[in-house]
From TrEMBL:
GO terms for biological process: protein neddylation. Keywords: ATP-binding, Nucleotide-binding, Transferase, Ubl conjugation pathway. This is E2 NEDD8-conjugating enzyme. SUPFAM superfamilies: UBC-like (SSF54495). Belongs to the ubiquitin-conjugating enzyme family. It comes from Anser cygnoides (Swan goose). GO terms for molecular function: ATP binding; NEDD8 conjugating enzyme activity. Residues 73-227 form the UBC core domain. Pfam families: UQ_con. Its EC number is 2.3.2.34.
């Protein structure tokens, strides 16, 4: 009986160690297959990402593509804004697009029907940059003029054309070409400002003559001296007659 019991104990011990060995082997085998499966999945995912990148192209865009994208956004805005502008153009204004396919460049002619500059003809050059409407259009007065808010070289003092303004009156993406044209038109009436001049000499002349006489004849005569008679051609500043 003792011999049988000892053999039974040995058998149980053998089975116990065999079970432990089998369990360890199974764990190792499972770990091996899991690692192989994980490697296969990662390889497949990497291959897919590589194929997708090949279809989409490089993740980082070049400066040229960024510029093209900005121009596309600008041109889409201009199609709508030009239509709005032409439908709401002041009666004293005319616009001309030298190239109908380039809406980002056009000329504006203002012919005031009241005030100091009544009867004059003033031409402006308007160029819309690629970054529009995050930045304002570039505007230059081509007509030689004696004006407190316009220099003789064509620089213009108009708040909505300022890219940065501390008083909140500068350019904002909510503004449009219509606002620009109406603002330029108002430089000859409501927005004519002698108190905050860009052309200081013109403003001082107005104040000096105003102190002598209450009527506006002296200022009007000087304002109309070069009104509509000549225009600046290009950056050279040479004067040529208006067509």
């Amino acid at each position: 009986m003792i011999v049988v019991a000892e053999r039974g104990a040995d058998c149980s011990l053998f089975l116990y160690f065999f079970f432990l060995s089998s369990l360890s082997f199974a764990n190792q085998l499972c770990s091996y297959f899991c690692s192989r499966l994980k490697a296969a999945v990662m390889l497949t995912l990497a291959s897919k990402l590589k194929r997708d990148d090949g279809v989409r192209g490089p993740r980082t865009s070049s400066p040229a593509s960024d510029s093209t994208r900005r121009v596309s956004v600008r041109d889409k805005l201009l199609v709508k804004e030009v239509a709005e502008l032409e439908a709401n153009l002041p009666c004293t204004c005319k616009v001309n697009f030298p190239d109908p396919n380039k809406l980002h460049y056009f000329q504006l002619t203002v012919i005031p029907d009241e005030g100091y500059y009544q009867g004059g003809k003033f031409q402006f050059e308007i160029e819309v940059p690629d970054a529009y409407n995050m930045v304002p259009p570039k505007v230059k007065c081509l007509t030689r003029i004696w004006h407190p808010n316009i220099t003789e070289m064509g620089e213009i003092c108009l708040s909505l054309l300022r890219e940065h303004s501390i008083d909140g009156t500068g350019w904002a993406p909510t503004r449009t070409l219509k606002d620009v044209v109406w603002g330029l038109n108002s430089l000859f009436t409501d927005l004519l400002n002698f108190d905050d001049p860009l052309n200081i000499e013109a403003a001082e002349h107005h104040l000096r003559d105003k102190a002598v006489t209450d009527d506006k004849k002296a200022v009007t005569d000087l304002a109309q001296l070069c009104t509509g008679a000549e225009t600046r051609a290009g950056s050279g500043g040479e004067l040529q007659p208006l067509a």
